[in-house]
Specification:
Blueprint (H helix, E strand, L loop, with lengths): L10 E5 L1 E3 L2 E2 L8 H7 L3 E8 L5 E9 L2 H9 L6 H15 L3 E9 L2 E3 L2 E3 L8 H20 L5 E2 L25 E3 L13
Antiparallel strand pairs: 1-6, 2-3, 4-5, 4-6, 5-10, 7-8, 9-10
Length: 193
């Protein structure tokens, strides 16, 4: 048996535009064109940019219908705890001068054993979406851990001391997909089991 066979999945995050040159942000209106274009399965990420334009955090997720999922983030119902927390994070980040933009995954065709993914239309299969979401989380975690410590979002209130471990969300909840990248001086790495 071989030691291992490398597998590469080529992908990129494409910013969603509401108009040519104008990025979709968490406060953007949901236009008919947006709903028509994105009422489909997708892998997405919310990018939190600081005032300098540098990405300070990213939230990666998957949706059976991206337009509906985005609507849930923008206008969360009272019982949608994840969406309420995310909207709170959006507003808090924007009030500090940052921006929050939405991006969608674009990828080259690939295959793993008998699972061949040729086109984004195959994201209607929830197993393929979840597989790719988990790959993206692992790849993002690996990529960011090489240069910075990866921290999870604090669910309730602000951390008084950023070196104190943050509240651990249920590992099956969407909020556990949030990754914060603090300054390089932090040395501790939190992992969820």
């Amino acid at each position: 048996m071989k030691e291992w066979t490398p597998l590469r999945i080529s992908y990129e995050w494409e910013p969603i535009e509401v108009a040519p040159g104008k990025l979709f942000a968490c406060q953007s209106p949901l236009t008919k064109a947006f709903v028509d274009s994105y009422s489909k399965p997708a892998l997405y990420r919310w990018v939190f940019r600081g005032q300098s334009g540098v990405i300070s955090a990213a939230y990666i997720g998957e949706a059976e219908n991206l337009a509906q999922r985005v609507q849930g983030y923008i206008w969360p119902g009272r019982t949608q705890q994840t969406n309420l927390r995310m909207k709170d994070e959006f507003l808090k980040h924007m009030s500090s001068g940052g921006a929050v933009e939405l991006q969608i995954l674009r990828f080259e065709p690939f295959g793993i054993n008998n699972v061949n993914v040729f086109h984004e239309s195959q994201l209607g299969n929830p197993y393929i979406r979840k597989m790719m979401e988990n790959f993206l989380l692992a790849d993002h975690d690996r990529y960011t851990a090489n240069s910075r410590t990866v921290w999870r979002i604090r669910l309730r209130g602000e951390a008084e001391n950023p070196r104190v471990p943050l509240v651990q969300p249920d590992r099956n909840s969407e909020i556990s997909r949030q990754l914060w990248l603090p300054p390089r001086s932090f040395e501790k790495k939190e992992k969820f089991k």
